[in-house]
Amino acid sequence: MTLPIVAYGDPVLRKVGVDIDPDYPNLKELLENMWETMYKANGVGLAAPQIGLPIRLFLVDTSPFAEDEDLTPEEQKALKGFKKVFINAYIEEESGENWAFNEGCLSIPDIREDVTRKDTITIEYQDENFKTHKETYDGLLARVIQHEYDHIEGILFTDKLSSLKKRLLKGRLTNISKGKIDVDYKMRFPALKKGR
């Protein structure tokens, strides 16, 4: 089932997610719905807060990036088969060079900006079977994981922009929160929910 994606301005996007355990209700169904929702919206990642759940859960499938001809064959290969569920994730270290990359977000449609992040991360998380993993990623893989990880920490990519950029985007962000945007996937808008 395709779920509505929560739009910018909804308080759930600002909550720090809580850990879940294997008894979390209907987890298998939730994951299936999240994959379906992400693919329907042409995303490469989706975090639980984006569908209204303040829990530490996100998923990533970087296959669409593998088509980028600017990447080396090794980078393309790494991105092509990368499809994972991250539960109760905690980034232990961010290291390496700072680099800028143009990011967008399903909760903030039609806005894309360059965001600077560290090149390499080490993350500990559990998979959908609650098996614990500790892994290190770099490049675009690290970037996508960092973006989704920020969601479970209550952080949006627009928070990482300069104050001037934020001021320039303020009107567009307000319009998104009021539902004054045309998207081809289901969304839930905070201003409409309150009857304004």
Automatic annotation (TrEMBL):
EC class of the enzyme, as a word: hydrolase
Cofactor note: Binds 1 Fe(2+) ion.
Catalyses which reaction(s): N-terminal N-formyl-L-methionyl-[peptide] + H2O = N-terminal L-methionyl-[peptide] + formate
EC number(s) per entry: 3.5.1.88
UniProt entry keywords in alphabetical sequence: Hydrolase, Iron, Metal-binding, Protein biosynthesis
Active-site residues, record numbering mapped to chain: E148
Binding site for Fe cation: C105, H147, H151
InterPro entries assigned: Peptide_deformylase, Peptide_deformylase_sf
Cofactor: Fe(2+)
CDD domains on file: Pep_deformylase (cd00487)
A GO term, aspect molecular function: metal ion binding
GO biological process: translation
One family name in Pfam for this protein: Pep_deformylase
Its biological purpose: Removes the formyl group from the N-terminal Met of newly synthesized proteins. Requires at least a dipeptide for an efficient rate of reaction. N-terminal L-methionine is a prerequisite for activity but the enzyme has broad specificity at other positions.
HAMAP family recorded: Pep_deformylase (MF_00163)
UniProt family annotation: Belongs to the polypeptide deformylase family.
Protein name as annotated: Peptide deformylase
Gene source species: Lentiprolixibacter aurantiacus
